Amino acid sequence: MTDPNCIFCKIASGQIPSACVFQDETAFAFLDIGPLAEGHVLLIPKEHYQTLDQMPPDVAGRLLRRLPVLVKAAAEVAGAEGVNVLQNNGKAASQEVPHVHFHIIPRRAGDAFRFNWPASKYPPGRMEELAKAIREKL
Ligand code: 5GP
Ligand code: ZN
User: Fold this and answer.
1) Are 98 and 50 within 8 A, CB to CB?
2) How far, in Å, CA of 40 to CA of 26, rounded?
């Protein structure tokens, strides 16, 4: 299913032009129009899913099997020393476009991209409690 109002559905179907780098039955990959680095690629499913948790596992599998080769190609073309793969789900997680997408961002030491990574610590017992709660959801 596609969403006629969704910009990424329109890009994947060719209604809106993009700098496409790869496509198959399931996946479409193209350059981000507002790159965090040269060669910043977006990998999306051709079908419309707002967030990753809504994707059937087999579709997610068919999409994600394209990730390694795209990471390698983008990194080589950009002359990158590393790559970040980012995937935002929901507004609280900085998702602007509500169609699942994986950012492939080539990185170089000392480049302008900064993470805010406010690592914290668990109080005693909390880690085990959370792991158990998550296991029980699977
Ligand atoms: P998000 O914040 O949802 O994870 O990222 C959305 C990304 O989509 C942004 O990096 C933005 O630059 C990119 N984007 C939004 N609209 C377009 C578009 O029309 N064409 C392309 N190529 N990228 C887009
Ligand atoms: Zn869509």
Assistant:
1) yes
2) 20
In the set 40, 48, 101, 103, the catalytic residue is: 101
Topology of domain 7-137, per CATH?
A: HIT family, subunit A (3.30.428)
pLDDT, one tens digit for every residue, the chain (138 residues)? 999 999 999 999 999 999 999 999 999 999 999 999 999 999 999 999 999 999 999 999 999 999 999 999 999 999 999 999 999 999 999 999 999 999 999 999 999 998 899 999 999 999 999 999 999 999
Q: For residue 86, give the ligand 1 atom closest to its CA.
A: 4
Atom of ligand 1 nearest to the CA of 98: 3
Task: Quote the DSSP letter at residue 123.
Answer: P
Residues bordering ligand 2, an ion, CB closer than 5 Å? 3, 6, 8-9, 48, 99
